[in-house]
Amino acid sequence: MKNINVFDTTLRDGEQTPGVNLNFEEKLQIAKQLERLGVDIIEAGFPAASKGDLRSVKEIADTVKNSSVTGLSRALTSDIDACWEALKGGAEPRIHVFLATSPIHREHKLHMTQEQVIETAVNAVRYAKERFAKVQFSAEDACRTELPFLAEVVEAVIDAGADVVNLPDTVGFIMPEEIRSMFRYIKNEVPNADKAVLSAHCHDDLGMATANSLAAVEGGAEQVECTINAVGERAGNASLEEIAVALHIRNDFYGKSTNITLNEIKRTSSLVSSLMGMQVPNNKAVVGDNAFAHESGIHQDGVLKETSTYEIITPELVGVEANRMVLGKLSGRHAFKEKIISLGYNATEEEIKKVFKSFKELADKKKEITNEDIFALMADEKAGDAMKYYSLETLQVTYGTSNIPTATVTLLDQAGERIEQAGTGSGSVEALYNTLEKIVGEGFTLHDYRIQSTTGGRDALAEVFVRMAFDDTESSGRGTDNDVLEASAKAYINAVNRVLNQRRAENQPKVANISTP
Ligand SMILES: CC(=O)SCCNC(=O)CCNC(=O)[C@H](O)C(C)(C)COP(=O)(O)OP(=O)(O)OC[C@H]1O[C@@H](n2cnc3c(N)ncnc32)[C@H](O)[C@@H]1OP(=O)(O)O
Ligand SMILES: CC(C)C(=O)C(=O)O
Questions:
Q1: What is the pLDDT of residue 2?
Q2: 369 and 271 housed in the same domain
């Protein structure tokens, strides 16, 4: 049985999801969980994109030991240098260099001839190979590239030292039969194809990403690139959980295995969903809430008689807990600590003590504390590691069908000084946000506001995500609470603190009403 390498790009292509903006702590948390999940390669970011990206790729490369860590780079020496800066301390420095090869990209984006594309790709791979132990080259938009030219590119970059050659379906255009043939063609026609691992990277624009990735495996791909919950640019990438489980369940058909620890899938999915603020649809394959639910009588009857009548995947296989240990207000520190560890956190006693306090407060208001609640509590705790420019002290909102909604808010600033303001709006949240804006200054713009409940039930936590910008610095914020307005206030304040922290890290001198130290 042959292994298929799983290359996870949740932190790079996944972070290209519109509206998603992870901070450094969150990326590190996801990377550690991906390591637990057993992914072979973690693409941690695009170091040349920003100082923040470089820092988080570096920290992940320095921390993660059981997965190989890589970063994306254009075919430019400056991008490759940024990757080297970020990855040189890793166990096996690995770079992912890309250059588009299709006629559309050559003509309209790169303004390059075929010869220039080959020369640029080869020079970039050679330059990278002088530094990195492992070099991956991606022929962006490979699936819309003339096959004979694609074969020339592949041969040239392998000659130049590429260890892995990725043939992405950048725009989610190809059909399964075509991608299978494309991989077979490259395997058969490129004389040195056996010197490199061929990889597939599929997008889901036509809903084919998983099918195409599996067809690529049939055609000879030995690496698949994918993301948790299928997050990614536009309609997203191929879903890691679908590919890994399909290869496992249909091993009779594919005869391939992966190193994925399947029962870590559910918790990885929940963590990514919670930190990215992207709810997993109930009917999502493998990780959706309904993936193991049976609603209709005939199905229920069948499952009661023999589960395999209607269930091809057991919940336990992917880590959906069958007999969960229920955490509630009567739970003690030991059970709580056990749960934190089982969710993959490497928390200190001090952190556990602090989160335990928040857990008890929450358990007083909510009957059953779920994994999603714990993720939210831990995310709040981790967010607390950053500098708190503002924190919420009190909040009062009055709303009536015939009154103007009014909010009164008191925040504490860094020095512990109270700042109180009142304001109105056309709804409660607007009144609240207008009031908060009066306190933090007018430069902040709210781009997005989303609300969801962490679980079902009347006592579920409200989880609010906002996306905000100050000048050209964008950030997101999250707040959870039993009350939607308090969750909304917390999300706003969290986003403001994150923008201010980000600007401080980038050494920008003055922000709104606050001078950054
Ligand atoms: C298919 C994919 O998912 S590719 C990855 C996409 N991800 C991202 O773009 C996220 C990170 N990107 C960024 O932060 C920015 O785009 C940066 C820092 C990389 C570049 O920013 P800018 O210098 O302002 O350039 P901008 O993004 O506007 O344009 C891209 C430039 O790179 C060129 N380029 C694109 N791909 C490549 C490549 N693989 N190799 C070399 N040059 C490339 C484009 O032709 C364009 O060059 P031009 O300015 O000469 O026309
Ligand atoms: C950089 C490459 C691999 C990519 O993300 C794509 O082509 O979609």
A1: 67
A2: no
Write out the binding residues. 13, 201, 203, 237
Looking at the predicted structure, is the pLDDT value of residue 456 above 60? yes
Q: Is 173 in the pocket of ligand 2 (CB under 6 A)?
A: no
| CATH code of the domain covering residue 227 | 3.20.20.70
List the one residue out of 152, 138, 200 whose CA is nearest residue 174. Answer: 200
Quick check: is 303 in a domain? yes
Residues enclosing ligand 1, CB less than 6 A? Answer: 13, 16, 46, 48-49, 74-76, 98-99, 109-110, 140, 170, 233
Q: Point out the least confidently predicted range of 137-151, 203-217, 493-507.
A: 493-507
What is the Å distance from ligand 2's center to 177 Cα?
A: 21
Residues 107 and 46 in one domain: yes
Give tens-digit pLDDT for 380-420. Answer: 776 655 667 899 999 999 999 988 999 999 999 988 899 99
Q: Residue positions in the annotated binding site for Mn(2+)? A: 13, 201, 203, 237
Interval 294-313 mean pLDDT: 86
> Is residue 275 within 8 Å of 44, Cβ to Cβ?
no
Q: Whose CA is nearest to atom 43 of ligand 1?
A: 74
Distance CA 444, CA 88 (A): 37
Centre of ligand 2 to C-alpha 140, Å, is 6
Q: How far is the CA of 71 from the centre of ligand 1 (A)?
A: 14
Secondary structure string (H, E, C) spanning 452-494: EECCCCCCCCEEEEEEEEECCEEEEEEEEECCHHHHHHHHHHH
Q: How far is the CA of 20 from the centre of ligand 1 (A)?
A: 19
Hey, which of 74, 234, 472 would you mutate to test ligand 1's pocket, going by the most ligand atoms within 8 Å of its Cβ?
A: 74
- What H or E segment, with its residue span, contains residue 186? helix 176-189
Range of the domain at 302: 293-319
pTM: 0.83
Nearest residue to 216 (alpha-carbon basis) of 181, 247, 265, 252: 181
Ligand number nearest to the C-alpha of 49: 1
Do residue 341 and residue 441 come from a single domain? no
Domain for residue 10, yes or no? yes
| Among protein residues, the one whose CA lies closest to atom 7 of ligand 2 | 170
Q: What mean pLDDT do residues 228-248 have?
A: 97
Quick check: helix, strand or coil at residue 495?
Answer: helix
In terms of DSSP bridges, do strands 462-470 and 444-453 run parallel, antiparallel, or are they unpaired? antiparallel
Judged against a pLDDT cut of 80, whether residue 254 lies above it is answered with yes
- pLDDT number for residue 368: 73
* pLDDT tens digits, 141-173: 999 999 999 999 999 999 999 999 999 999 999
